Amino acid sequence: MTKNLLQGLPARELLAAKRVLVVGDVMLDRYWHGAVERISPEAPVPVVRVEREEERLGGAANVALGVKMLGARTTLLTVVGRDQPAVKLRELLHAQGVETVLRDDPKLQTIVKLRVIGRAQQLLRIDFENEPDHELLGEMTDAFEQQLASHDLVLFSDYGKGGLAHIPQMIALARAAGKPVLVDPKGSDFQRYAGATVITPNRAELALVSGQWRSEADLTAKVDALRAEIGVEAVLLTRSEEGMSLFAADGISHEPAQAREVFDVTGAGDTVIATLAVMMAAGLSMEEAMRWANRAGGIVVGKFGTATVSYEELQA
């Protein structure tokens, strides 16, 4: 079934009373912008003369910011290193009013994604990362349980960087506390998300787990089998130019892609799940929350780099 009409956006006052707990892998997104005027004499590569540097919240930190920009309150629970990127992440989160419960791992290199930009085009990305200490992640589970009572919904942002090693236990704790659980998944093992309310894979992520589909009927069969296998209530499949499809026990809903030029898809999944979480926390059905998430996704892909969508933009 396909519907295009949106109910009114929940009032700011309602959203301001809702709290979303965001847990996952955080990173600092760095951008070096510069002019490209020649090819290096040392190798056949462009020479970028850096003119401007920029730092933004990435990963689960961008998801938490997305929740905040839509008007809800949020707490970010994660692990960072004891290094300069972690200091910058703290500064950016504090400046945006995102509440945090951060655990410091002295052995961890806070994840940094450095993108070199020339003439508004990404020329190169360099990643700096390693995995956090598992004992420290175990302590995070205790902190997670302490935060549950004061939040309306839990959102896991899994970037496959090791920060959600204990996600099965945390999902079980959240569901035992009666909290809806949303997961942006990664990797080939979706069994670790068993019991979640909604998971939001994209086409490539779903194909990695369920295999490629030959038709819409085949896709539906594969998603239904996945839902039954891992015990999730719904799967929201993001399909790029094909829009979004929500597979739930009561049927399938589809939203066509928003008609706008795509500039950059970086962080689009963050915006989709942040919007879905806020709308569901506000009491909207999954189907209606998906429509707002689809609209938000259509807005954010028109922006450069890791970005968010504000309440005002969504309202407009």
UniProtKB/TrEMBL annotation:
InterPro entries noted in UniProt: Carboh/pur_kinase_PfkB_CS, PfkB_dom, RfaE_dom_I, Ribokinase-like
**Which PROSITE patterns does this one have?**
PFKB_KINASES_1 (PS00583)
* The keyword Transferase appears for this protein: yes
Q: Which UniProt keywords apply?
A: Kinase, Transferase
Q: Which Gene3D superfamilies match?
A: 3.40.1190.20
Molecular function (Gene Ontology), one example: kinase activity
UniProt key word Nucleotide-binding: no
Show the SUPFAM superfamilies listed in the entry: Ribokinase-like
Q: Which Pfam families match?
A: PfkB
User: For the Carbohydrate kinase PfkB domain, which residue ranges apply?
Assistant: 18-308
Listed name of the protein: D-glycero-beta-D-manno-heptose-7-phosphate kinase
Which species expresses this protein natively?
Answer: Roseateles oligotrophus
The protein's gene is named: rfaE1
